[in-house]
Specification:
The protein has about 200 residues and is α/β, with parallel strands linked by helices. The protein is about 35% helix and about 15% strand. Helix 3 links the parallel strand 2 and strand 3.
Amino acid sequence: MTEIWLIRHGMTEGNRYQRYIGKTDELLCEEGKEKLKEFFYPEPEAVFVSPLARCRETAEILFPEKRLRIIDQLAECDFGDFENKNYLELSGNPDYQAWIDSGGLLPFPNGESRQEFQKRTLEGFQRVVTACFRSHISRAAVVVHGGTIMNIMEAYGYPGRSFYDWHVKNGCGYQVKADPVLWNRNRKVLELINEL
């Protein structure tokens, strides 16, 4: 059995102002760094991260002695024309209104579609799980983005929830466990143990 902590990165300036921060490579803000000190996660045997600076910085604060294993496919969604803007700045934008009316199912203009984002992040997560099982890692941390966690948990989380019901705050996350026998038999389930 492998225990995995899925952890959202700490707060950035863009997060503070509720901006769509996807491919923008922001560092953590000072408040975000300070708040991470309030969290305690058990020491993992391996730490996997998105390539973006906010995730690497978070992992270095939470697990300072650990080597980071970067998985490019775990990066946040490319929000296209909405990137680095918030709902107030997008108010009155017909493309944004169409996206809202679709329940977030339309592709982001000049960005990724929900399906592309989900496919990419699930492929990245499969790389994490495969590495854990092959190396007999019993506890891993995966420091990524809110959207990445939501994709993973919507696909595999048990008990199940919808995509938006898996939203997690900065620095928080889900402790799950995966059974390698079931996973390799294509019964891919992440049993929820705890959430912070």
